[in-house]
Target: F-box domain-containing protein
Amino acid sequence: MADCSSLPSELVRRIAECLLDTNDLDSYMDFRAVCHSWRSATDDPSNSSDPRFCPRNWIIIDMDFETDSCLMVNTASGRVLRKDLPVLRRYYVVAVTTNGALFVLADREHPHAARVLNPFTGHMIRFTAPVPYNMKVSSAAFSCRSLPSLRLIWDSDRGQPDG
Model:
């Protein structure tokens, strides 16, 4: 049996880039988990807001808050995936972005500070602005540019949020 770590790093990198080019972010993360040399040869998404690591075409079709897992489907490929997300125990889920499967969260302990979680990479972007506790979000949009931005639109039936 061949040792996976003996593959040339350039070949490993090319395979990883193909996964990213086809928006196969979950397979990319599995690919990186194979061994240390494969992780070293590929880009680390855990501390990056690089647009290649923003999930596209994924929607969340079910959330199980008792087990902190979600069922997701890729609208382009039809691939179905269940993700366990124990990090959700520390946050309120405020919304899911419309342009992907990013979670907009409010911190349970710190004045409901807004967070955006990438469920595939575990990368979380922290915003200083709080999410008002009484806000019912009807739409959320997130941009993965050099300066990440978050736009929340609340339900007009509930009126303006306090503070």
Summary: Residues 158-163 have pLDDT under 50 and may be disordered. The two ends are 62 Å apart (CA to CA).
